[in-house]
Every structure is written in structure tokens, then in C-alpha cells.
Design a protein that fits this description.
Length: 307
């Protein structure tokens, strides 16, 4: 017995999508400018900040893709629509960004030991361009940062990138004023340290979804205990929970009830109680739940391969 419609919900309005697209364009432009600046100036910090911008562009792309694809209706072939496209894209991008972060750290250590000459003026100019782009992006998203988690995550992406651009400018200033060439390596190591934890967290979260791991914060032992506490419930088996996408947890279970429930009208009440239980009584609200109500003797006909 199922709950309600499993059609994917909308993730944001047209206004949000337009703002995300604008900020993505700004971030992508800043990314290209910083790559060119790194080539011209020889600055690893600029290249690292470009990697940081790539991290942000990936996050903004995911936010935009989630906002667009969530509008597409489910079909008989894709009953969840395109919700998992977000996860597949995130996993691929996280793998690339992890490689970028490792390269920046390794190269940063090498340059710390043997610092090359860096053109501080070019580094400063391109760093300012990057910071201006970040500032404009922050202004675009500031008014909507509290409307939903998608917009809040996008806002935090560009704020973090602005911090990276600021680190580039500080390093350029140190080189120009004091001739301390190692400032470029120090700034690149700082930016690399900002990239790796976020990228690793993104990769871990996407792998958890793809492996259909129980959603973080949902204690299945607690769910089982709550279900067993309901009147007329005798047992629970084949209890599973996973995520279709990062914001779409699902749960299913076989629930053994008293035989009389199928004749005295209790079965629909029990189903309502089960769905209310998983939707509101636990750390993760599971709105998409499916329960199979069984008579006590039904289990003898099943092959039990799961908990």
C-alpha cells in the first residue's frame, strides 16, 4: 500500500533559475579570467582560485540543474523524473575537483620550497577582476539566500569564492610590497585547503545516494521501534530507506498486523499512522513511503533476504 503521488516537487521558481543562471555566467567568466591570469602571471594562487571557482561553478550548475530538471514531469519510464541526474553530475564533478585540489596542494608545497618568480601586477589585476565578479554574484543572490536550501547553498558558494579571491589579492600585495614570492604558494595552499574538504564531502554524499545508503539522520532502529509500538502491529521486516536525490528520501517496509485488521476496518487507519510516523516523528521527514500490510501467516510464503 502506497502513500501519495511520487511526482517530483518543484525546486524553485523561474526567478530563482534566472538568478542562478546569471551568477553561473559571472562565475564561469571569472574562472576563465583567472586561468588566463595564472598563465600570464605564473601565479599558482590564481590557478588555485580558478580551481575554487570551478568548485563553485560545479555547485551552481547543480543548483541550476536541480531547479530546471525538477520541473520535468515523471513518466512511465522515469517514475522519479530526472531527479537523480543531479547526483550523477555531482559525482563526476567531485572526482575532477578532487584531482584539482590535490594538484594545487602538491604544487603549492613544491613552490613553497622553491618559489618561482611571479608577476605581482598581473596577479593583482586578474585577482581584482575575480573579486569584482564574486561581489556582483553575492549582490544578485543576497536577497534570496533564505528562501530555500538550494539558494542558500548557491550563496555560500560565491561567498567562499570571494574569500579565495581576497587571498590572491593579499598574496599579490605581499609580493609587490615585500618581494615575498612564497606568498603565492601560501595563498594557493589556503585555497586548496578550502577546496578539498568541500569536494570530499560532496563526493561522499553522492556516493552514499548512489549506494542507496540510509539517509543521514534517519535511524531505522528508531523507525522500527515506533512502528512496533503502533496498535495491532506484530512485526516489521524488509525495512529499507534510501534517497532518490539529495533532498528526496524514500522508505518502504512490510508490516505484519493482526488478521482481524483486514476485516474490521483497522488496516486503513494503520496505514495512515505508519505514514504519519515516518513523515514527522524522526530526524528526517520521509514523505514518500510505501508499506505492505500483511497478515501473520503471509510471511510463510515469502523469501526473506533482507532485514
Amino acid at each position: 500500500m502506497g502513500g501519495h503521488s511520487h511526482a517530483p516537487a518543484a525546486a524553485g521558481g523561474a526567478g530563482h533559475r534566472r538568478k542562478l543562471a546569471l551568477v553561473l555566467g559571472i562565475t564561469a567568466t571569472a574562472l576563465v579570467v583567472e586561468v588566463v591570469g595564472a598563465a600570464v602571471s605564473g601565479s599558482l594562487a590564481l590557478l588555485a582560485d580558478a580551481g575554487h571557482a570551478l568548485t563553485d561553478a560545479a555547485g551552481l550548475t547543480l543548483a541550476l540543474v536541480a531547479a530546471v530538471l525538477a520541473q520535468r514531469p515523471a513518466t512511465p519510464q522515469r517514475t522519479w523524473g530526472y531527479r537523480r541526474a543531479e547526483v550523477l553530475a555531482a559525482a563526476a564533478q567531485a572526482a575532477v575537483l578532487l584531482a584539482v585540489g590535490v594538484f594545487v596542494l602538491v604544487e603549492g608545497v613544491r613552490r613553497l620550497l622553491d618559489p618561482p618568480e611571479v608577476a605581482s601586477t598581473a596577479m593583482l589585476v586578474f585577482g581584482v577582476v575575480g573579486l569584482v565578479g564574486n561581489t556582483v554574484a553575492i549582490a544578485v543572490l543576497a536577497s534570496d539566500r533564505g528562501t530555500n536550501l538550494n539558494m542558500r547553498a548557491a550563496f555560500l558558494e560565491v561567498v567562499n569564492d570571494a574569500l579565495g579571491s581576497a587571498a590572491v589579492l593579499v598574496a599579490a600585495g605581499c609580493i609587490a610590497l615585500f618581494g615575498w614570492q612564497r606568498a603565492d604558494a601560501v595563498a594557493s595552499l589556503l585555497i586548496g585547503a578550502l577546496i578539498l574538504p568541500r569536494t570530499w564531502r560532496l563526493l561522499r554524499e553522492t556516493v552514499d545516494v548512489l549506494l542507496e545508503t540510509t539517509p543521514k539522520g534517519l535511524d531505522l532502529d528508531d523507525v522500527r521501534a515506533h512502528i512496533l509500538d503502533l496498535p495491532h502491529v506484530r512485526d516489521v521486516h524488509d525495512l529499507h530507506a534510501s534517497q532518490v536525490a539529495t533532498d528526496l528520501p524514500v522508505l518502504s517496509a512490510h508490516v505484519v498486523v493482526d488478521d482481524d485488521c483486514f476485516h474490521d476496518g483497522h488496516a486503513p487507519q494503520i496505514l495512515d499512522q505508519l505514514q504519519q510516523c515516518v513523515a514527522s516523528h524522526h530526524g528526517v521527514s520521509v514523505e514518500h513511503s510505501t508499506f505492505q500490510l500483511e497478515a501473520a501467516g503471509h510471511g510463510e510464503h515469502e523469501h526473506h533476504t533482507h532485514a
